[in-house]
Amino acid sequence: MKVKKYVDRGSYLFVAQVIEKEPIERRLEDVPVICKFPDVFPEDLPGLPPPRQVEFEIELVPGAAPVARVPYRLVPSKMKELAKQLQELSDKGFIRPSSSPWGAPVLFVKKKDGSFRMCIDYRELNKLIIKNHYPLPRIDDMFDQLQGSSVYSKIDLRSSYHQLRVREKDIPITAFRTRYGHYEFQVIPFRLTNAPVVFMDLMNRVCRPFLNKFVIVFIDDILIYSKNKEEHEEHLRIILELLQKQKLYTKFSKFELWLDSVKFLVHVINSQGVHVDPAKVEAIKS
Q: Which of 75, 89, 190, 201 could pair with 95 as two cysteines, CB 3.0-4.6 Å apart?
């Protein structure tokens, strides 16, 4: 009726049809530079990582005795998930059967996507580990090198701790106990003291030739920054070649590319400078 009313008045009408489109899925093979390095973006980690420049070592305080705890009770749904994840970790060689006198219990942590990650409750063990004081970089020092940059890409390594081996003689200390058996980790497990700084040490060594030039590394996060797109293409290629050579893997869905503004370590970075992420400020206020 309203349409007829306006037509009778001699008004001009323009009819627009709004069509909702499905978001276009980004495909690796369609992205310049990235498409040449598909092996850096596997669907899952391929297995036990190669020996690297750094191993995860566990140094215990003098007189430390093995700690073994009774497994926690888990509801049936968690038991099913436990069996599944144990099988996956075993298939990749990340864990192996153990006869160690050590044994921590298992718990589950809910991830952002709603799924559950199996974690080991290493709180008792962590009290006995000598802290590694390898320095994490100061954020302000890292950001000082960004002056003049305007193009950014951010890489988040996939399950980073599982890409670094535990020193052979320390593997029994990582043991954990479950209803399905006694296991120990051959790669760094989550929630173990010193894991972040040891991985930081590895990434500093791997990326050292490019630090303070066009790369910032913070544990398992890599920020590539450049003055322009042409320069950025070359920087991307260099870092992807490096990851390929080192057999370090990332997740394509978390790879943020060719950005003029990027969020990194609770800051927003662009050609105008570095600013605290407003969303984080609001979260603190609320």
A: 89
pTM: 0.84
Q: In CATH, what number is assigned to the domain containing residue 171?
A: 3.10.10.10
135 within some domain: yes
Tokens 């990332």 belong to 250
The residue type of 49 is P
Task: Quote the domain boundaries for residue 205.
Answer: 28-285
Query: Pick the residue with more confidence: 142 or 181?
Result: 181
- Provide the pLDDT confidence category of residue 25 given band limits of 50, 70 and 90: low
**Residue 81: Cβ within 10 Å count:** 17
**How many distinct structural domains can be found in the chain?**
1
Rounded Cα distance between 179 and 79, Å, is 9
| Number of residues assigned to the chain | 286
